[in-house]
Design brief:
Shape: elongated
Helix content: 40-55%
Number of domains: 3
Number of strands: 12
Number of helices: 24
Length: 668
């Protein structure tokens, strides 16, 4: 590639038909039908038509992303289906939504765009020259250091256009270039596209705005998936017998499907006959008068070299650097990233401000043989004392003396007569209930509840961080995929960047909580018992890994949904199972429930890695059952969950590309 703009590429369609399956019975729905046209190099074409006319389908077919059912579609003399890789750098595409990261300055956004779009071997000097040329061509030199998020709508659209001009495309396809822009800005964008065409680039733009389509060389109007007009604006008004271009849409909708397509074909036939007659009259070659078809275009095939796509390593570095730089340059996002863990830490400290972590608790044990004998004898005397209705039925024996005492305390007497008391004694004698005092320990209840909340907060933080990371930049992802973006490099860079951000957030959260308890201790209070958890460093490390695993799971959701709103709705559905499987609310001590928790719950492993049940912890606080306390097990499990979630995200993106998006070809 040199510094000269690429010569425009011709676009030739010959009876192009696109059909898709419309039902389980194999019915086919035709999106485009017998589309034939020729766009000359350097022409500026505006594509118009009512909703559902086939404009988007035609654009995707030209881009090589929609399989053609019948016919032939050539760009620069190359079949877009079989030669898509060779055309990768020759076709630029600007989607409706702006595709540059809003937190970056214009030149930095173009810097990262150039690393994706330009060949891998492009020298730094050539890359910088491409950026300068693109900025100059769209008139953004004056704002090259301005953050994209602060640009006007027209400037942001021009920045998106500049990103595609970096590779000097011979064909530039623009989808709704002027949507949501004011009339003046819309006029400037159309003038810019017209100027780009005059410079040699073939430009095709889909638009609903009709005020400035006279900037185009020709209008391509579609209706019901067929071409109903391809020519000048002035002639279109006469063809449709209207005075305003907007009334063309009404004319298309008022007539049956196929009416205007037949009118167009009849007009083409008449034009061909007239052209042949004029050629014969002037004794010119019939070949010069004959409309160029696909074979002519093939003979004029543009010389396109294979574009060397950057490998996994360079792409990973590009995406990771862009992600981190975008994060650092976003003051609002950065502020929220620091504020959220501080708020969560404040909630934890406030919620446990009244908890007595060192409150004593008596641990009991089973009765030994001598204790059982004494207890059985004592209970026999008590039973004999409480059985009669009145003390008069007893003599002066021990039961009688006990009854005289109990009559002074009727509530105790009533409790002793309850059937549950008999069952309690029976169970104690049968070694079912530990009754004898063993030793006094610090009550683990407060520490375990605090630890469970700490782990849960970090899991929630991970989900909230990850669920919008892909969907928020979906237009940029889809576009860069056309230029050879590797899903593995992109997703792995996302995970590493999220891990870095979460490391800071978890550190802030953990440190704030620790400082809070240090202050509490200095004021004479207590803090969570060290016996029951593995300290702030290990606990924070496992919480971080769990947060990264949940962020990776959030990426799966972000890859599946098409809007951020749908991702928000999915977050509670992700959090609730984690809380149920994390052994924070319900014990997970074995069986199929433990298998499910071990496979799908980062919270379970975070809780297991952070918690230490200590010696002598009562059974009702042993939520993890019998398990190996080795630290490497939860560490390895969380790393495995991160790897699996990352892999699933990559596979989901690949599946969407082939099944949902209907992409015609895999991109390397």
């Amino acid at each position: 590639m040199d510094d000269k703009t690429m010569t425009g590429l011709a676009v030739v369609a010959e009876a192009v038909t696109v059909s898709v399956a419309a039902g389980p019975g194999g019915e086919q729905k035709t999106l485009l039908k017998d589309v034939s046209l020729r766009i000359e190099p350097g022409e500026f074409i505006c594509v118009l038509g009512p909703s559902g006319a086939g404009k988007s389908t035609l654009v995707r077919a030209i881009l090589g992303e929609r399989a053609i059912t019948a016919g032939q579609l050539l760009v620069g003399g190359h079949d877009v289906s079989s030669k898509a890789d060779s055309l990768r750098g020759a076709i630029g595409y600007v989607p409706q939504k702006d595709i540059n990261p809003t937190a970056l300055p214009v030149e930095r956004a173009l810097h990262f765009a150039s690393q994706v779009r330009l060949p891998a071997e492009t020298a730094t000097e050539r890359r910088l020259a491409s950026i300068d040329r693109a900025l100059d061509s769209v008139g953004l030199e004056a704002v090259r250091t301005t953050t994209i998020g602060t640009l006007s709508g027209g400037e942001a659209k021009r920045a998106s256009l500049a990103a595609e001009l970096l590779a000097d495309p011979g064909l530039l396809v623009v989808d709704e270039a002027t949507s949501s822009l004011d009339p003046a800005t819309e006029a400037r964008i159309m003038m810019l596209l017209a100027g780009q065409a005059r410079a040699g680039t073939t430009v095709i733009t889909v638009t609903h705005h009709l005020d400035n389509v006279d900037q185009a060389n020709k209008l391509l109007i579609l209706g019901h998936g067929e071409v109903v007009w391809f020519g000048s604006r002035a002639e279109a008004l006469g063809h449709f017998e209207v005075t305003r271009l907007a009334d063309v849409y009404l004319a298309i909708e008022d007539k049956p499907a196929g009416y205007w397509a037949n009118q167009w074909r009849e007009r083409q036939a008449e034009d061909r006959l007239l052209a042949v007659a004029q050629a014969q009259a002037e004794s010119e070659s019939q070949a010069e008068a004959r409309p160029a078809g696909p074979r002519d275009a093939a003979a004029e095939a543009a010389a396109l070299g294979d574009v060397s796509i950057p490998g996994f390593g360079p792409q990973f570095r590009t995406f990771l650097t862009r992600e981190l730089e975008t994060t650092v340059r976003d003051p609002l996002g950065l502020g929220m990233a620091f504020l959220l863990p501080l708020v969560l830490a404040a909630v934890v400290l406030f919620g446990f401000s009244g908890t007595q972590f060192e409150k004593p608790l008596m641990v009991t044990r089973l009765l030994d043989a001598d204790e059982k004998q004494v207890f059985a004898d004592a209970w026999g005397e008590v039973r004999a004392a409480i059985t009669p209705e009145t003390v008069s039925e007893l003599d002066a024996s021990i039961p009688g003396q006990i009854r005289v005492f109990l009559d002074n305390y009727p509530k105790i007497l009533a409790h002793l007569r309850e059937p549950s008391t008999e069952r309690f004694v029976t169970d104690a004698l049968a070694d079912t209930i530990p009754l004898a005092p063993d030793r006094e320990i610090a009550d683990p209840a407060g520490t375990f509840k605090w630890l469970a909340l700490m782990c849960t907060c970090m899991v929630i933080l991970g989900f909230v961080t990850g669920f919008r990371e892909i969907v928020k930049e979906r237009p940029m992802l889809d576009l860069e995929r056309r230029h050879g973006l590797r899903f593995a490099a992109y997703v792995l860079a996302k995970v590493i960047a999220l891990a870095a951000v979460l490391a800071v957030q978890v550190a802030v959260f953990t440190a704030t909580v620790e400082v809070g308890f240090m202050i509490r201790e200095s004021l004479g209070g207590d803090r969570p018992e060290a016996l029951y958890y593995r300290g702030p460093l290990l606990s924070g490390s496992f919480n971080w890994l769990a947060a990264v695993a949940c962020a990776a799971i959030g990426l799966i959701v972000s890859a599946c949904v098409r809007t951020t709103d749908k991702g928000v709705l999915a977050v509670p559905l992700l959090i609730m199972p984690q809380m149920l499987l994390g052994a924070t609310i319900l014990p997970i001590t074995g069986g199929i429930l433990q298998v499910i928790a071990m496979l799908f719950s980062p919270l379970y492993w975070s809780h297991r890695g952070s918690r230490s049940e200590g010696n002598g912890v009562p059974d009702y606080w042993q939520h993890l059952g019998d398990y190996d306390p080795a630290l490497w097990i939860p560490f390895a499990a969380l790393v495995a969950q991160i790897v699996v979630a990352t892999t699933i995200t990559i596979l989901v993106l690949r599946w969407q590309e082939r099944a949902v998006l209907g992409r015609n070809r895999p991109v390397r």
